[in-house]
Specification:
With about 450 residues, this protein is an alpha+beta fold. Helix content is about 35%, strand content about 20%. The protein has 3 domains: about 5-90, Uridine Diphospho-n-acetylenolpyruvylglucosamine Reductase, domain 2, CATH 3.30.43.10; about 95-215, Uridine Diphospho-n-acetylenolpyruvylglucosamine Reductase, domain 3 (2-Layer Sandwich); about 220-405, FAD-linked oxidase, cap domain/gating helix (Vanillyl-alcohol Oxidase, Chain A, domain 3). It has helices at about 5-10, 20-25, 50-65, 115-125, 140-145, 155, 190-195, 230-240, 255-260, 285-300, 310-320, 325-330, 345-360, 385-405, 425-430, 430-445; strands spanning about 20, 45, 65-70, 85-90, 95-100, 105-110, 125, 165-170, 175-180, 205-210, 215, 220-225, 245-250, 275-280, 305-310, 335, 365-370, 375-380.
């Protein structure tokens, strides 16, 4: 391909939409996973409309140039890492938003941040539930691409449960509409769900129709302080065996102290673990759920159990949990895990991570959306210490092996990306990998979309 071809693409699009400045491109090479294998893109394109995305994809197809779709760059699995000679297509300027309170839907372009959609819905007395810890900085497009979860997923589900429709640009440049604003739709294959969680390898999402709910009821918060991690993990199983709380989060001692070091909140530094639970059930049902949570915490060894109906106090504890990753990141470079297991296996997973940390002599902080079995072991290491780096990498793989051995998953909400694809066949098996490759080939026969992800 010649420079004239790229110049023609730039001429066909609005002025300034195609960027080749090396200093700007450098900021789009990596996402938050900081994949060391990131390449140098040919150019960056920042479209604002579906037709512009189609023009880029058609140009890439004509010249056999690969294209990596990027949202806010918050991927924790290397899902939007740049590839040498590829186009990085950033959706950050695709920001249209329409709320329809009659159908309780939001029609949004992928560049909108999760927090912005929440705020727009709230202004209409509605609620968009999916809430990744990074909700203030992650985009809806990225959420859909990875089927993101969050703190309230234990009761309210993940992104796919709120996607009613999509507009997707396929690898040949066609734009297709899937689903719509209707709640029920059984017409044809469930293609909408096929694209949710597909990590950009099947098409480029340019519009999303999201289901909204009435505003969330006020929640009561219960905080349990535990002297042992085993007691806390057993308490999680005891709670979820009886009810589905609105939230049930776990922080270990490393995370507690890291958060307290970063933002003084009065967290118990001597605790081995902290559980933060919420109930938003109304009236008597809510009181019964709170009592059950407290009883489960206390019967599994909690030395302190604190309950509040004050939303400000409750949000303070939620904010502490959300702050865990950036707080632990201050301890060193991070390898961020996202493994999940069936709830009865949660204590075994937590114990196994501790054994791996000890065997590899690395610091691993474990935080979790414990109510749905999705954990985030955070491996902190000194990047200047090659031996420690190697041990951290070994621990990373061993944790995924552990999750698979417990009938779990290597990713609950972050996606496979480029960093975890080596372990995907061990989880799903050769037949599913073959089926995945067949679907990819059918929709993207030249392998131009997000190469190196999943397969």
């Amino acid at each position: 391909m010649t420079g004239d071809a790229l110049a023609q693409l730039a001429a066909d699009l609005p002025e300034g939409m195609v960027v080749t400045d090396p200093d700007i491109l450098a900021g789009y090479r990596q996402d938050r996973a900081m994949d060391p294998g990131a390449g140098t893109p040919l150019a960056l394109v920042r479209p604002t409309a579906t037709a512009e995305v189609q023009a880029v994809v058609r140009w890439c197809a004509a010249h056999q140039i690969k294209v990596v779709t990027r949202g806010a760059g918050t991927s924790l699995s290397g899902g939007s890492t740049a590839v040498d000679g590829a186009i990085v297509l950033s959706t950050e300027r695709m920001r249209d938003l329409r709320i329809d309170s009659t159908t309780r839907t939001a029609t949004v372009q992928p560049g909108l941040l999760n927090a912005e959609v929440k705020a727009a819905a709230a202004a209409e007395g509605l609620w968009y539930p999916p809430d990744p810890s990074s909700f203030e900085i992650c985009s809806i497009g990225g959420n859909v691409a990875t089927n993101a979860g969050g703190l309230c997923c234990v009761k309210y589900g993940v992104t796919v449960d709120y996607v009613l429709g999509l507009e997707v640009v396929l690898a040949d440049g066609r734009a297709v509409r899937l689903g719509g604003r209707q709640i029920k739709d059984s017409a044809g294959l469930p293609l909408t769900k096929l694209f949710v969680g597909s990590e950009g390898v099947l098409g480029i999402i340019t519009e999303v129709i999201l289901r909204l709910l009435p505003a969330q009821p006020a929640a009561s918060t219960v905080v349990g302080v535990f002297p042992t991690v085993a007691g806390a993990s057993s308490a999680v199983v005891a709670v979820t065996d009886r009810i589905r709380p609105a939230m049930l989060e776990f922080m270990d001692a490393v995370a507690i102290n890291a958060v307290e070091d970063m933002v003084t909140m009065g967290l118990p530094r001597d605790a081995a673990a902290l559980l933060i639970a919420q109930s938003d059930a109304p009236g008597v049902a809510g009181a019964e759920e709170v009592a059950l949570i407290q009883q489960a915490f206390e019967s599994h060894g909690a030395t302190e159990c604190f309950m509040t109906d004050d939303p400000v106090e409750g949000e303070a504890f939620t904010a502490a949990r959300r702050a865990a990753i950036p707080a632990v990141e201050r301890l060193g470079s991070l390898l961020l895990e996202d493994v999940g297991v069936p709830l009865p296996a949660l204590p075994d997973l937590i114990d196994g991570v501790a054994r791996i940390a000890a065997a590899q002599s690395v610091t691993i902080s474990l935080i979790a959306h414990a109510g749905d079995g999705n954990t985030h072991p955070l491996i902190a290491y000194d990047p200047g210490d090659s031996a420690q780096h190697d041990r951290a990498q070994d621990a990373f793989g061993q944790i995924m092996d552990l999750a698979i051995s417990l009938d779990g998953t290597i990713t609950g909400e972050h996606g496979v990306g480029r960093l975890k694809k080596a372990w995907l066949p061990d989880q799903v098996g050769p037949d599913v990998m073959q089926l995945t490759a067949a679907i990819k080939t059918a929709l993207d026969p030249d392998g131009l979309l997000n190469p190196g992800v999943l397969l």
